[in-house]
Amino acid sequence: MAQEIERKFLVKGDFKPEAYQSIRITQGYLSSVPERTVRVRIKGEQGFLTIKGKGNHSGISRYEWEKEITLNEAEELLQLCEPGVIDKIRYLVKSGKHTFEVDEFHGENEGLVMAEIELETENENFTKPAWLDKEVTGDNRYYNAMLTKYPYTKW
Question: What InterPro entries does the database record attribute to this sequence (predicted)?
Fold first, then answer.
């Protein structure tokens, strides 16, 4: 079973000069219940179907399964998704031996900028860039599936 070990942080300041790549992401959810989310994503010109399980007590680890699908399949599946779409630009930023995925949200989540880092273990050390702010790992409001239902601009 594939485990995703991830920590999430809010972002303050300008991270963009450090980014080495960016890509537009659009995604929706076929299921957004906490026990399992089923996500359809278009990342650039690629489609993906992802299933994630409920997180552990800390919210850092959870089951994740992902499969690439055709762009056409992803576009069709997005039509079946629950209301609410995530529209964001993802920037990749190196920090030490890790890469942060920094998401700048648009649409109903405009103004939200969040960074995620994937780790090998829950207690793994990593270099924290100056633009990293408050940790929000385990705060359900910041899960993309929740942002489709309760957008950031309406908090």
Answer: CYTH-like_dom_sf, CYTH_domain, NeuTTM/CthTTM-like
Q: Which are the catalytic amino acids?
A: 29
pLDDT in tens, 44-96: 999 999 999 887 766 688 899 999 999 999 999 999 999 999 999 999 999 99
Say how many domains are in the chain. Answer: 1
Q: Domain of residue 60: give its range.
A: 3-154
Alpha-carbon distances, residue 115 vs 6, 13, 42, 80 (angstroms): 10, 12, 19, 28
The three-state secondary structure class of 144 is helix
Q: CATH number of the domain that 94 lies in?
A: 2.40.320.10
Q: What are phi and psi of 111, to 5 degrees?
A: 100, -15
- How do residues 31-54 score in pLDDT, each as one tens digit? 999 889 999 999 999 999 999 988
